[in-house]
Each structure stands twice: as C-alpha cells, then as structure tokens.
Amino acid sequence: MGIAVIALTGVGLTGTVLLLMLPDGSAGTSLGALRPPAGCGDHPSVPGCLEDRSLPGFDRAVAWLVTGQLLLLVAIGATARSGRRGGAAPAAATVLIAVGAAWCYGWLPAVPPAPLDVWQLALALLAIAAIGLLLPRTRPTAVKQPLGPYTDLAWRGRAPAVIAGFGWLLCLAYCTGLLYWVTDRLNSATPNGRSVVAQPLPVTWAGLCFGVALLILALVAVRGVVLFRRLRQEEYARLKAHGGPLSAHDLRRGRDVSTHRAIHRLVGEHALRLIGWYAGAMAVLAALSCVAVLSPLRPHSMSATGGAAVIKVVADVGGALLGWLPVAVAAVGLLVYRNDTVRRSVGVIWDVGTFWPRAAHPLAPPSYAERAVPELLTRTAGLLALTEHDPRRMDGIILSGHSQGTVICTAVILQLPNRWRHRIWYFSYGCQLTRLYGRIFPAYFGPDRLPVLTRALTRPPRRNRLDELLAGHRPARLAGHRRGTRYRRGRPRGAASQRRGGGRPADPQPQRLPAGRRVPEGTVPGGLDAPAGGPVTPAGARLDVPPGRRGRRCR
User: Residue 397 carries which DSSP code?
Assistant: First the structure.
C-alpha cells in the first residue's frame, strides 16, 4: 500500500508539471491569463483581483477528492458495523453521485444537462450513504454485551469510521494549514502588505469549517469540565463519609485522591461518549463542507455586513488558526519535554496511535508493537525452552504489564505455543483490555477474545476469575494461576494518621491483612491514600473477609 501511495503521488506531480509545460493556444491554457489584473497590489478592490485563478479543473478535482474520501469513510464504518449489507447504501450513493454529476455537467449522451447543479444533489445523496451507519449491527458471536458497566462497544460499533475520520480531518487540517501559512507569507512579502495571492475556492471554506469545529470542541470541553467538577465533589463527599473525623492533613490528601479518582472516572466512564458526540457533529459538518466545496459559492463576500459579518469573523479566525497549526503542534512537542502532564497525555495518545502495524502512509510513525511484541516473545520463549539441567531454567515466568503493557503482554501470550502457556503468570494493573481496547477494537480484544485468553493461561477443569479480573474493576490483578492474589502477612494497623514529633501528621499507614485472607471485591486496604477502584475502608476498622487457603504471596 505504501508503494501505491508513493506511485500515485509521483503520477500527480508528473501530471502537474506536464500541465504547466503545455504550450499556449489551442493545446493548452495560457498561464498569463491566470494572472490578476495590474494594480491589484495597491487596490485589491479592482474587479477581477480576488477571483479564483487556479489551474483549470483544480477546484473540481479537490472538491471531488474530498467528497470521495468522505464516502469511503462512511463505507468503512458501515461495513464494519453491519457487514456487506451496510456497504450497500454508500455504494449506491456513490453511483448516484457519479451519475448525477455526469447529468449536471452534460456528459450523458442524448440527455440534456440537468437544470440544477451537482451540489444541490450532494446533500441528499450523502444522507442516503449515511443510512448504512444506522443499520442494525451484526454480532459475529453469541457473547452478549455488556460484560459490565462501561464495557459496551464504543460508538455502537462505528469505531473504524470514527478513528479513520479523525485521521482524515487532521490530514486535511495540516494540508490546508500549510497552504494558508504559505499564502500569508507570500501576502506579507508585498511592499504595501496587500496580497495578490488568493487561495483556491474550495480551500476558502476550510477556515470557516475549522472555526466551527473549534467552537464545537470548546462546547465539548466545557461539558467535560462540568462533569469533572461533579465527579470530584461526589468522590470527596464519599471519602469524608467513610473517613470519620479527619484532620487537616487527611482533608488535603482527600482532595488530592478525589481529584485523581474524578479524572479516572471521567476518562473511563464519560470520555468515549464525549468523543462520540463530537464525532457525530464532525460528520454533519463534513457532509455540509462537501456540499459547500462542490458549489461555486464563497463562504462570505468581501463586504460582509450583519450576520454575514459573523461568518466572516469565524472564517478569518479559523483561517489564521489553521495557518498557525504547524507551530502549535511544534509547541506541544516542546512541552512534552518540559511538562509531566503534557508528556503523559501525549504519551497515551501516542501509544494508542502507534501500537497497530501500518504500511499505508509513508510518513506515518513506525509501529513499536512490531518490535516490542517479537522481542518479548523471543525472550519469554527462550527462557521457557531451556533444558531441565540448564541453571538458567525457570519453572514459570511472570508477565507484568501496566496500561498499554497489558495489551503487549496479551499479544505475546496469544502467540506462545500451548505447551508453554500454563507456565505463564500474567499480572496486570491499570488494565485497558476491556475498558478501552475491548470497546474500540472488539475483533481483537472483545468479549469473545477474553475467553480465548483465559483458556490460554489455564488448564481444564480448573477455572479462575480471569474474565472478571480483566474487566478493569480492580487497580491490581493477578491472572494465569489457579490461586488468587495474596497480600503480605502482618497485623492490622491502628489509626490511619499518627502524630509524630513536632505535631506534624504522619502519612496514613496501609492496612495489612492476616495471611491467607483475600481482599473482598471493591475494597482497597488503606485510608485516603488508597487508589481508585472501590469504596475505601476506614483506617482502624476490621475487614470482614472470608477465610481462604494459604497460597503464594505477591510481594
């Protein structure tokens, strides 16, 4: 695929050069005719100065390229959601748009041109293509969703269209932003600061669309902030209710813990829904944009008044921000090395975006999974394949993964031979298999894949709770062994905070359980410092846990 992209890019550049080299006259269009009239640098209001003077057919090619890409995205999402029947509506809409364009342009033999323009048909035909996204979803297996709270499929099975759509919009934003930036630099190079360079007609709509997209993103961000404040208040009230009389130090620590829990709940429970709302708004905006670029209209006139003046302001602001988009991306790259919060946020997006192998884009970053998974697989298989008399031989191996590491470890386990899988202990914390990957990529980590991983790590007829442990309800999970998690032996501590010399409150001490006792579901030992994952047991209270067999301790 990468070779095909490179070849098509070379063909496009070659065709552009050949078009520019065509002679004047009947065999080609004179390039001098594409120049603006004299005096436009001093007086841009002269008639003909701000007209679109792109190469012949360039505007139409850009408009149809964007429309075809949108139809392709709709077909991808509809086929992934409803199978082949979902792709029928986008295919029919594509054929109708092609026939309608030929009719409007007068290309059909023995048929007079249509009395209307092609952009007047585009919106209705794009709506027909969107019907494929509304068809009932096909379920490839008998596994019933959801497995638990917030584990249903993200965006009702339209994840391929959402992910590919955001990539497509970012690509358009980068390309048009670069064009806007070059145009601004050429305009500022004139002695009087007035420009004689104008963007092609389809590109003039990019600034308005980008400004509207930013406004919608701001509304979604405000909704996220409101949800975060509400979740933080709920978590803080829950901590105070379970903690009893608390000191100023405990209250301060409680605010920190409630903030982290609110972020965890916002990301795990509400983030995908907010992204889905924004993706739906972007889909409507993209359809309207395709209709706009197919039309010969401009987003606003040069002397806009009234409501048109507001549109002009939004378009100008969006165009300016598009021009500075490459600079903004470079600024975020610099902040990665200076700010821990930005580094973690960008790191999460980078991990998810670069995990899957890809070969379609020559400028895409390489997938680190193509190196990390084989290296870990080779290391694990090499240790398990040692002979019995080798001093380096091990009876078992613990694969420990946090967040994205759980996905890498899962990929390694599923590629190991069956004779070695029962010697693997799989320890995961911050697991994203069900809460994130299982919802967005159900074909790889969906509900029908978790039993496969369970059978890979256990031997019948004994069963464990791997499906429950992978569901993401606990902050730490141990899977792949018949026995459950054991904590270190010790006596329960007393009060959560004790005064030290100088009157400074000490950090709350974590509570330890007697040997052979398990932590009940939804309970975390410790005081206000305990991580998120369930109600906190107040320090000093006795945990009522059922007795269990003595097993291997997890240190």
Answer: E
Nearest to 127 by CA among 163, 166, 170, 74: 74
What average pLDDT score do residues 182-190 get?
74
Q: 240-281: per-residue pLDDT in tens?
A: 887 667 788 888 888 899 998 999 899 888 999 999 999 999
DSSP letter for 268, please: I
**Contact between residue 445 and residue 407 where contact means Cβ atoms under 8 Å apart:** yes
What's the mean pLDDT when you consider all of the chain? Answer: 75
Convert 133-148 into a string of H (helix), E (strand) and C (coil).
HCCCCCCCCCCCCCCC
Q: Contact, 447 vs 147, CB < 8 A?
A: yes
Closest residue by Cα to residue 257 from 275, 234, 278, 274: 234
pLDDT given at position 472: 43
Torsions phi, psi for 217 (to 5 deg): -65, -35
CA dihedral 100→104→105→111, nearest 10 degrees, is 90
Q: What is the pLDDT, as a whole number, of residue 528?
A: 33
Burial classification of residue 293, based on how many CB atoms lie within 10 Å of its CB (0-12 exposed, 13-18 middle, 19 or more buried): buried
* 3-state secondary structure labels for all residues of 497-550: CCECCCCCECCCCCCCCCCCECCCCCCECCCCCCCCCCCECCCCCCCCCCECCC
Burial 460-479 (b: 16+ CB within 10 A, else e): eeeebebbbbbbbbbebbbb
| CA–CA gap between residue 395 and residue 423 (Å, rounded) | 7
Tell me how many degrees the CA angle 455-417-371 measures, rounded to the nearest 5: 110
Contacts of 494 (CB under 8 A, 6+ apart): 539, 540
pLDDT of 121 above 70: yes
State the amino acid at position 240 in one-letter form.
K
φ/ψ of 154, rounded to 5, equals -75, 135
* C-beta separation of 120 from 406 below 8 A: no
- pLDDT at residue number 542: 32
Q: What is the pLDDT of residues 478-529, one digit of tens each?
A: 343 333 333 333 333 333 333 333 433 333 344 443 444 443 433 333 333 3
Find tokens 């509207």 and name the residue. Answer: 212
pLDDT of residue 435: 80
Which residue is listed with tokens 């901590």? 239
Q: Which residues contact 223 (CB under 8 A, 6 or more apart)?
A: 274
pLDDT of the residue at 11 = 82
From the list 523, 555, 518, the residue with the least C-alpha distance to 541 is 523
Cα separation, 245 vs 240, in Å, equals 8
> Alpha-carbon distance 133 to 420, whole Å?
43
- Give the residue carrying structure tokens 């379920």: 139
For residues 530 and 542, give the distance between their C-alpha atoms in angstroms, rounded to a whole number: 16
Burial class (CB in 10 A: 0-12, 13-18, 19+), 226: exposed
Q: For the chain, first and last CA: distance in Å?
A: 48
Closest CA to 184 of 174, 173, 198, 171: 198
Q: Where is mean pLDDT largest: 50-59, 435-444, 465-474?
A: 435-444
